[in-house]
Design brief:
mainly beta, SH3 type barrels, five-stranded antiparallel β-sheet, two-stranded antiparallel ribbon, 9 strands
Length: 130
């Protein structure tokens, strides 16, 4: 009972949930059993401050047989804490911290935020979400 309350308390409110990592980013894992490995972010969970990286932090799950689905052991990527991954710059190819810059973009020239590599100073390419 206490753990359920603690987990609920740790979740951020939706309006404050922001991550430095986006879906489709190449990342380097900084801590854990997959330390030093690189992968692509499959999914982000900003309220929990976690990300799922394709092919890393794999757990085995035993699945019971159901209608049309055989029983067996499946491998499933589990979430990592967002602080344990570092974005790899699309320009210089090195792991980097992220800076933000406000620049007029688009047809309306509205100020929009873009992510910048702290190492080389160039903009990090945004990936299409979908």
């Amino acid at each position: 009972m206490a753990t359920a309350k603690k987990k609920e308390r740790e979740r951020k409110p939706l309006h404050l949930a922001k991550l430095h990592v986006h879906k489709g980013d190449n990342v380097l894992v900084l801590a854990g059993k997959d330390k030093g490995k690189r992968g692509v972010v499959q999914r982000t969970m900003p309220r929990d401050n976690k990300v799922v990286v394709d092919g890393l932090n794999i757990a085995k799950k035993h699945v019971r047989a159901r209608a049309g689905v055989p029983a067996g052991i499946i491998e499933k990527p589990m979430p990592l804490h967002a602080s344990n991954v570092m974005v790899i710059c699309t320009e210089c190819g090195e792991p980097t911290r992220i800076a933000h810059d406000r620049v007029p973009m688009g047809a309306d020239q509205k100020l929009r935020v873009r992510r910048i590599c702290k190492r080389c100073g160039k903009a990090i390419e945004e990936h299409t979400r979908g």
